[in-house]
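Page 47, continued from p. 46.
Same chain as before, 81 aa.
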Amino acid sequence: MKKYPNLVEDLKKRHQIYNNSLDLIEKKEENNQFFVFRPEKIDIDRFSRDKKELEQLYNSGYKLAEKRSGEFSEWLKNNKE
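Result:
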């Protein structure tokens, strides 16, 4: 613990940091600063090691990206800085 003196306090606040990050992403998306790909649903335990389940989740994300690629390309064209 000497090596990481703030670890315990940081772990106590991790949920706040996570929620603040989600809020920031949502605001940036609303202001058209971010384009966000969100999974439609996730029916997998966050600790899963089931290769089939993980592959299905990966494939669903890949399909979502393919489905929204035109929308993303258009967003990129309109948001050049």
